[in-house]
Amino acid sequence: MQEVVAKFVEYLLQTKNYSAYTATAYESDIKDFLFFYENFTGNGVFVKDLSRADTICFRSWLADRQRRSLSAKSTARALSSLRTFYKFLAKQYDIKNDAIGVISSPKVPRKLSKAIEVSDVEHMKSAIKEIDDKEPWIAARDWALVLLIFGCGLRISEALSLKNSDVRGNPDSLRILGKGKKERIVPMLPAVLDAIEKYVRLRPFGTGVEEPLFRSVRGLPMSSRMAEKVVEKLRHYLQLPDYVTPHALRHTFATALLAGGADLRSLQELLGHSSLSTTQLYTKVNMNEVMKAYESAHPLAHIKDED
Fold it and tell me: Is-catalytic flag, 155?
């Protein structure tokens, strides 16, 4: 089985173009299942045996992970890794298993992303220059994208949907079409505009007015996965926590504005949230600051109840 797993990892790296970090995580998940399956059956595991794993086996594995106090998020990822592994087995070894398709992933509690330290965002600029030192226009593109999400609070899809016409003429705001085709106006900071203008000057193609602003190395419209890989590269290079993602950049924008005194309604408009309750999630990260301000400034904070 070691040879099969090694070929699977090679498939992830060469065919699927996964990062080494992701491929290692998948390998760990598969080895975890194979170790469990060997104990579950009481026999050594050969590739042909994997077709016989049934729903009881898979659910027992999930239960075993829960007993080991592994998180629901980790287990959901492990199950996804195993599904990918079985697709690989079907293609390469004609090993089919329908049982894996009916296993439901554990529910992962919804959590608000953590904010990124502003200093870490600043460090990303120099890191991008070092990573993309041979391609200045790629470095300019990546920094423009990071700064756009962080400086304007955009979703990845919103940033990548921008056309050249949207940033022509030094606009002081952007018209964004968000979820549910809801339109909103977002202020454009001078630093963000400067970064975009530098990228546009260096970009070797895609200059048409109605063409996509952000381009891949080959000149195609940049995909969401490409944008995620930009931040993933930076996270690994700077050794930042796993929560540093494009969405965390958007979240950092929101928490910075809230900490600076922005009201929830204004923040709701800037983020394009349809419901104020979604925006109110951001207040949780600033509760300590709110309590400190309350204790030091509120006129009733130091009055004791005499009853």
Answer: yes
Q: Choosing from 91, 179, 225, 265, which is the catalytic residue?
A: 179
**What digits encode the pLDDT tens for the residues 40-95?**
988 888 998 899 999 999 999 999 999 999 988 889 889 999 999 999 999 999 99
In the residue annotation, 59 being an active-site residue is answered as no
pTM of model > 0.70 = no
CA atoms of 286 and 301, how far apart (whole Å) = 19
Q: Are strands 173-177 and 183-187 parallel, antiparallel or unpaired?
A: antiparallel
CB 63 within 8 A of CB 72: no
Asked if 52 and 96 touch (Cβ cutoff 8 Å), the reply is: no
Annotated catalytic residue: which of 155, 203, 215, 235? 155
Looking up tokens 């992303």 gives: 113
- Which domains are present in the chain? 2-102 (1.10.150.130), 118-283 (1.10.443.10)
Secondary structure (3-state) at 153 = coil
pLDDT tens digits, residue range 160-175?
999 999 888 878 888 8
Given the residues 129, 229, 236, 247, the one annotated as active site: 247
